[in-house]
């Protein structure tokens, strides 16, 4: 058996062999020992999808404490887009921690925060003056986008959509659709949050303009544009099931927001930073959001988030109105600058489009021989399959769970999502080699064949 002190377990990063290697039962003995300690020490309310404990990760694999190597089709929920312990990120972080780890930007500012703001202004869609504020989590970015929209408009209401996921803080719980596990027992929730119907082509059969008209009618009747500060939407939904709205839905909504003085916020926490084959998913439909929320993939695994948007909006709150002790921490900003550089240097927008072709080819092939795969959808390295009872749109969450569990046993990390829990989502790191992805799908083919 591979030992813990072997090279691949002490270094991590892209030097790890890019292979699926299952040496023990899963979870192995070391993971089981940790699980026993965990159950006594860690809140049972904090879950983990995988039963094994990480020792190292890089390229497209995660290696566990028992020496098993898994193909990673989840990237820690779309975070390690440039790869785990990507060399540029490791170097930038190492250099920064030797200089200083924290001053608080609100006390003593530093240049990497300013440079990152400049970079995000250039990369987000729209050729207009933009500014940025940095935070730590995705939910915090979403909350701050709402604060900015309210300060700018003097209005209070916020519209979100069916199946939306925006986070777990009080305001973002109100904005998130799914009650269990995200909201159950945690109310009362923030007021002035309203939900509109989404475009969900597999389930509603509407084209984009028709779905937008339906949503706008609900908003006008139940909220009123004059009361509405912001429309907040994921250009492709994340936790909600990787729902890709029908073409034309997002542009129609953005146009309506513009006509009515409503701030259009694209929550690109999951879709941003090369994940969909563009810097931001809004670009696929030519949408220029007033504000963009950014997190997950932006800093190579370090906690960092941002709101980037129209300068006049970003300046609307009173001076000192935005911030936070750790917002734009210098280690995280150094990691983010290195992440953006890695995307450019390694051609990762292009790579995401190649990964899309591979994922769609494998999933369509599987769907052609297995009617339980009802809908294959997504963009770039953000692709999903919705599992249903054959010939219907009735969700099959049990199958999704069974496939994810069995895939882990055979060395592949696959995540589920969707309001009904019946969607398998694929978001590999863009550093994962094709051969590893093909192997992972060979495993999934076998898992589906066996799950009869
Ligand atoms: C993950 C996610 C969030 C919340 O981010 P956290 O960092 O977990 O707070 C918000 N919006 C979207 C679209 C997300 O995918």
Q: Short description, anyone?
A:
With 452 residues, the protein is an alpha/beta fold.
Structure, described:
The protein is of the alpha/beta class. It folds into 2 domains: 148 residues, Aspartate Aminotransferase, domain 1 (Alpha-Beta Complex), CATH 3.90.1150; 257 residues, Aspartate Aminotransferase, domain 2 (3-Layer(aba) Sandwich). It has 15 helices and 15 strands. A 7-stranded mixed beta sheet has the order 4-10-9-8-7-5-6, with helices on both faces. A hairpin with a 2-residue loop joins strand 1 and strand 2. Helix 4 packs antiparallel against helix 12 and helix 5 crosses helix 12. It starts with 6 loop residues before the first helix and ends with a helix. Pyridoxal-5'-phosphate binds next to helix 6.
List the SSEs and their pairings.
Blueprint lengths: L6 H5 L17 H13 L12 E5 L2 E4 L4 E4 L2 H4 L8 H13 L11 H13 L6 E6 L2 H16 L3 E5 L8 H6 L17 E4 L4 H4 L3 H15 L5 E6 L15 H11 L3 E5 L23 E4 L10 E6 H4 L15 H16 L2 H22 L3 E7 L2 E6 L9 H13 L2 E2 L1 E3 L5 E4 L7 H17 L2
Parallel strand pairs: 3-13, 5-6, 5-7, 7-8, 8-9
Antiparallel strand pairs: 1-2, 2-3, 4-10, 9-10, 11-12, 12-15, 14-15
This protein binds pyridoxal-5'-phosphate.
List keywords for this structure.
Aspartate Aminotransferase, domain 1, 452 residues, 15 strands, 16% strand, Aspartate Aminotransferase, domain 2, 38% helix, binds pyridoxal-5'-phosphate, alpha/beta, 15 helices, 7-stranded mixed sheet
